[in-house]
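Thread: Modeling a multi-component assembly for a lab meeting

Hi all, long-time lurker, first post. My supervisor asked me to bring a structural picture of a complex we are working on to next week's group meeting, and I have zero experience with this. I have the sequence lines for every component (265 residues in total). Could someone generate the structure of the whole assembly? Inputs are pasted exactly as I received them:
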Amino acid sequence: MNELILLASFSILGIALVVFAASVVGQRSLVYSALSLGLLGMANAGLFALLGYAFVAVFHLAVYIGAAVIFILFSVTMFREIPDVEVSTKILTVITVPLIALILIYIYLPYLNATFKSQYFIYKEISLLFVTRYWFPLVITGLALVTTLIEGITLARMEVEEDV
Amino acid sequence: MFNYYAFLILASFVFAIGVYGLLNRRNMLRMLLSAEVIFNSVLLFLLTFSALSSSPSTGGVIALLAIGIAATEVGVIVSLAVLMFRLKDTVDVYEISEQKG
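Re: Modeling a multi-component assembly
Sure thing. I ran the full set together rather than chain by chain. Output:
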C-alpha cells in the first residue's frame, strides 16, 4: 500500500515535471514560459520531498520559486514579445537531444537495481556541516547574493543615453 | 519494484528537453529559461545520487548552496537582459554579438 502511494506520487510528479519542462521550452509567450518554470520547480520540489530531502524542497520553493522565478516573471512583462527565429541547427538538435537522453539512461544502467528507501535527516547534522566543512561556500553564496542585489539596483538606476 | 533508476530516467528526459531549448533559441531570456530547466534536472540528479551515497546530508548541503547560487545567476542574467533591451532594443543573442563595442 505504502509503495503504491509512493509510485502514484512519483508518476504524477514525474509527468508534471516533463509536461512543464516541455511547456517552458515550447510556449510562444514568455510569460507562460516563466509560469511553467515555476510549476516545474514545484513538481521538482515534490520529487525532492519524495527522496527524503524535505528541507531542500522547502528551500527550493521559498528561494527558487518564491524569488528567482517570480523575478523572471515580473521582468519578462517589461519586454515586448519578440517572434522566435528558428535557427538552422533545428534538425541537428532533434537528433542530438534523444541521443543525450538515451546516453544518460545507458550510463546510469548500473543503478537499475538500487532499491528505494525513505531517508530521515537530522537537521543538526546539516547545520554542523554548514558551520564546519562548508562555511566558506556559505560565505561566498551570501556575498554573491549581496553583490547581485547591488548590481540589480545599479543597473535599474543606470541612465541610458539617447542617440541623437 | 520502485527504485532510484526511475528518478535518473526522469532527470535525463528533463535534461534533454532543456538542451533542446538552449540550442534552438536566440532570445536571451528563453535561453535562460532553458538553462533553468537543465539546472532543475541536475539538482534532481544530485539529490538522487546523494540519497544513494553513504553520506546523504552532504548532498543536501550542496543542493542548498546550488539553489542560492542559481538565484544569484538569475538576478544577474535578467538584469543584463533588461539593460541590453534598453541599450540595443533587442535580446537576440546573435544581434547583440554582431553589435560589438
